Amino acid sequence: MKFYDCTIAPSPRRVRIFMAEKGIQIDTAQVDLLNGENLKPEFLKINPRGVVPVLQLDDGTCIDETVPICRYLEELYPDPPLMGHDAKSRAVIASRTRHMEMDGFLCGAEAFRNSTPGFADRGIPGVTGVPAIPQLAERGRAGLLRFFDQLERVLSQGPYIAGDTFSIADITALCVVDFAGWVKLGLSDSHPNARKWYGSVSSRPSAKA
Amino acid sequence: MKFYDCTIAPSPRRVRIFMAEKGIQIDTAQVDLLNGENLKPEFLKINPRGVVPVLQLDDGTCIDETVPICRYLEELYPDPPLMGHDAKSRAVIASRTRHMEMDGFLCGAEAFRNSTPGFADRGIPGVTGVPAIPQLAERGRAGLLRFFDQLERVLSQGPYIAGDTFSIADITALCVVDFAGWVKLGLSDSHPNARKWYGSVSSRPSAKA
User: Fold this and answer.
1) Which end of chain B has less neighbouring CB within 10 Å, N or C?
2) CB proximity under 8 Å: A 5-64 to B
3) ipTM beyond 0.95?
4) Considering only alpha carbons, which residue of chain B is nearest residue A89?
């Protein structure tokens, strides 16, 4: 297998943390997003959508998108389980992970892409140049502030985002909080439980991945 | 189990088609989105995010978001498989389903929510009133046109969206094409393979669900 990564980008970081938690090492190629390597013909042969992360299987099949890649790795390397141990816990973790993506990650992307000069024509990821929309940057920032409150509510009920153990939902939330830092937003004094959780998940060795 | 549905909405339709393909019948409650029933305290006890679909398990646990619900049902009712039969096919179908969501469904939502008078303060689903952004309606429409071309490329390579058999990726794509009709966009003469596929999947009995 080969993993197509970009060290600075938040989506492939989710996969890197996932692999670090499982102790997996996979042959990795860096894709230089800052210089548009993801939009060049050589990479578009790997992924016509022009995004990372991508996991290329030994038969050449390329899987993109974070959660499908993680699910494949979970099947190959089940221990420790990061996506649940039975039908119900798998469903709860998948659902909570979607919340972190839809209510958090997408807001971070809106806030960052629509306010950063170098992304003036990169309003969405991938091959299509789409102009930034300033109102969307504001919508994204407001969404991130709501997301922090949502994290606080969830984490006032238990130590992790989805149940009693660390999971891909925590990995996703951690990457959202760090992504929000790119637009200078972060957890505040009104999020004591989320801050405690953030300190804990950030200090796991995998967080450096 | 109890399924919280809204007949007119495209997301719960994905679950209804999924259940129809498997021959599953689950006790169902309609949530009247048009009259804001999803934002009332009674429903917010079921799902604090204020969205459908929701699957309530017998122990009271509520799972929201389409794919996590479908994955749970796939575990309980594995035949016929709609999410793959081995690690690789599960990964390919999950990845393609994400493409249909990110490159199609989100564009439909952008186009519809940001151009429909009754949704002037419903720019995103759920509990938060967010103003519509007219530029986003245009971005969504352009995205749907690109999505139709993407469908044509995928369906010129095989009969279904992800491999040789009908899957949740086809269900998702079908619901996107029908959702696009809400903003008066559709497949054209330049999409012969996608049109043939659409005719085929639309004529399955499950499509009426």
Assistant:
1) N
2) 48-49, 55, 57, 61, 63-64
3) yes
4) B72
